[in-house]
Design brief:
The chain has about 550 residues and is α/β, with parallel strands linked by helices. The chain has 3 domains: about 80 residues, Alpha-Beta Plaits (2-Layer Sandwich); about 190 residues, 3-Layer(aba) Sandwich (Rossmann fold); about 200 residues, 3-Layer(bba) Sandwich (FAD/NAD(P)-binding domain), CATH 3.50.50.60. It contains 21 helices and 23 strands. A 7-stranded mixed beta sheet has the order 7-6-5-8-23-22-21, with helices on both faces. The protein has a 7-stranded parallel beta sheet with strand order 10-19-11-12-15-13-14. The chain is globular, with a radius of gyration of 24 Å. The structure holds NADP nicotinamide-adenine-dinucleotide phosphate. InterPro entries: 4Fe4S_Fe-S-bd, 4Fe4S_Fe_S_CS, FAD/NAD-bd_sf, FAD/NAD-binding_dom, Ferredox_Rdtase. Its cofactor is FAD. Its EC number is 1.18.1.2.
């Protein structure tokens, strides 16, 4: 009864360190970890202890006897990562090497105080790493009244197990030394220099909030949008509640075939009654109930072997949705299978080769994967009526009618006030998370990055754990070696300063009140019913009980 890692694997590697026999790979110290689509359990070495199950923050691991029918392909997928051997391997006590916690030396100007900007996975993993040391203080600044970044506003509502990682983030936020400063925008409500006056270091983990833009005629017409805007819309991000999402046509075309495209296609074709049991935004659910969409085409410019989606997500998609290929694309899959030796790519192609035919009559909203289509222009005068493609590598033109055209060609980092920015790669130039001045190539004092703004928009939630750990190790080394200037102000001064600037600042108690109110609104059938307007969030936060007198007195003493 070996254990099996399934689709929602977040790759943070917690399971690797919990495993007493080191049977989960690639581990964070191994080559291939950064690019792995998921982690895999060696069935021949697994001793079925279940330690990995409790360590996994997203509930992605189960014994092979407890898998749902949709999860069964993951038994073979885990096993296929390892060479074929007969029988069980003898147990081993070898443990994966754990990255040492960053030891913070006590200094006269201490304790170490770090401002973390952003509250998504990279920010929370950085806070966790810093708070392994007693006395360290971490203040997390977030421009929205709600924390956790793309876990709240990016992960699809039908992927609730992935969202379970917020349980881990809640535990990090409850640690001594952690402070939330939500509804505070760094760069407008408070500046980088002001943060440095109150902290030894500022660590930006702001993600990649923009989309790459497709430069073809007609983008920007009504009926065009980016897939990530639609993701923000159905996830209730307050800036996207009014996004016009036209679902009155029978076809939607999504350009690009990464995991974001798969997420959006799944939600647009899902049964609304199933979505009604998730935390999808109410306005999106109402629009989906009225939807006329019968087919979502995911159009890729290259061939099947170059598909950008990952195998776990493809397996998840094909086990829950009707996914088809037309005859020409079936031929492309066969040709790629004959020409491909890479095992992972072959696995993807095998799944594609078993898909149904697009010539079958449409009986329920379906997804069609289409290949070899390079977008040339958006059709339509005042609003999009479809897309004109050229068949990649030829002059042949193909027009595809659609009522909504979405581009899903990747995220893009955005420049941060007071920090250098590399326009070409859309990241903040850095070495191991230390921000570098472009002219001198020297580190910018007290300034660090982690997550997508450090390495670009790739990887999964848990990839940010090792990324943040690297940054924190360098930050702590700089502190220990006296390279960080002591803050001008005492630790307790920051709360008063921020409230002076932004009286509507929301702290941990405010967030707890919003969280509780959303869960209550969700009732017995939904995990939560999200507030989608900032004033409603502020009203809910205002109901938070005031801080106990003892804590207020303590905060006063620290000023
Ligand atoms: P992505 O994986 O980088 O895919 C981008 C897609 O856009 C590719 O198909 C690419 O095609 C295409 N593209 C780029 N430029 C194009 C152009 N000018 N014209 C036509 N097509 C173009 O991006 P993503 O889907 O936004 O995902 C971002 C990251 O988030 C990925 O690491 C992804 O795995 C992760 N993510 C994970 C999950 C999950 O695990 N459930 C969910 C969402 C996102 P080419 O390959 O031909 O360039």
């Amino acid at each position: 009864m070996p254990h099996v890692i399934t689709q929602s694997c977040c790759s943070d590697g917690s399971c690797v360190y919990a495993c007493p026999v080191n049977c989960i790979h690639p581990s964070p110290d191994e080559p291939g970890f950064a690019t792995a689509e998921m982690l895999y359990i060696d069935p021949a070495a697994c001793v079925d202890c279940g330690a990995c199950v409790s360590a996994c923050p997203v509930g992605a691991i189960a014994p092979d006897t407890k898998l749902t029918p949709e999860q069964l392909p993951f038994i073979e997928l885990n096993a296929a990562f390892y060479p074929k051997r007969e029988g069980k391997l003898p147990p081993t006590s070898k443990l994966a090497p754990v990255l040492d916690a960053p030891v913070v030396y006590r200094r006269p100007g201490g304790p170490l105080r770090v401002a973390v900007v952003g509250s998504g996975p990279a920010a929370m993993y950085a806070a966790d790493e810093l708070l392994t040391q007693e006395g360290v203080r971490v203040n997390v600044f977030e421009k929205l009244p709600t924390p956790y970044g793309l876990v709240r506003a990016g992960v699809a509502p039908d992927h609730q197990t992935t969202k379970r990682v917020t349980g881990l983030f809640d535990r990090i936020a409850a640690k001594d030394g952690f402070g939330f400063y939500l509804n505070v925008e760094v760069g407008s409500d408070i500046t980088h220099d002001e943060l440095l006056e109150h902290h030894h270091a500022v660590l930006y983990a702001v993600g990649a909030p923009n989309d790459k833009r497709l430069q073809v005629e007609g983008m920007g017409l009504a009926g065009t949008a980016t897939a990530t805007e639609v993701v923000a819309w159905y996830n209730g991000h307050p800036d996207y509640t009014d996004l016009p999402v036209n679902l009155s046509g029978d076809r939607v075309v999504i350009i690009g075939n990464g995991n974001v495209a798969l997420d959006v296609a799944r939600i647009l074709t899902a049964d609304p009654d199933t979505l009604a049991r998730t935390d999808i935004a109410d306005h999106a659910l109402a629009a989906l109930r009225a939807s006329q969409v019968q087919e979502v085409v995911i159009a890729a410019r290259r061939g099947p072997a170059a598909s950008a989606f990952t195998l776990p997500e493809l397996i998840g998609l094909t086990s829950t949705c009707e996914v088809v290929l037309d005859a020409l694309d079936h031929e492309r899959v066969s040709a790629d299978l004959a020409a491909t030796t890479d095992a992972l790519t072959r696995n993807k192609l095998e799944v594609l080769s078993k898909l149904g035919s697009a010539s079958a009559p449409i009986t329920r909203p379906r997804i069609r994967l289409a290949y070899g289509l390079t977008p040339a222009r958006i059709l339509g005068d005042t609003e999009a009526t479809g897309v004109e493609f050229t068949v990649t590598g030829s002059d042949q033109v193909e027009q595809m009618p659609a009522g909504l055209v979405l581009t899903s060609i990747g995220y893009r980092g955005k420049a941060i006030a007071a920090l250098p920015f590399d326009e070409a790669s859309a990241v903040v130039p850095n070495a191991g998370g230390r921000v570098l001045e472009p002219a001198s190539g020297r580190p910018l004092a007290g300034t660090y990055v982690a997550g997508w703004i450090k390495r670009g928009p790739t990887g999964f939630i848990g990839t940010n754990k090792s990324c943040a750990a690297e940054t924190v190790h360098n930050l702590v080394a700089d502190y220990n070696e006296g390279r960080l200037r002591d803050p001008h102000h005492k630790p307790g001064a920051i709360g008063r300063f921020v409230r002076g600037r932004k009286p509507e600042m929301i702290d941990a108690r405010g967030w707890a009140a919003i969280d509780e109110a959303e869960r209550t609104r969700g009732g017995p059938t939904r995990p939560r019913d999200k507030f989608t307007a900032v004033p409603d969030m502020l009203d809910a936060a205002a109901d938070a009980p005031s801080r106990p007198l003892r804590q207020r007195l303590l905060a006063g003493l620290l000023r």
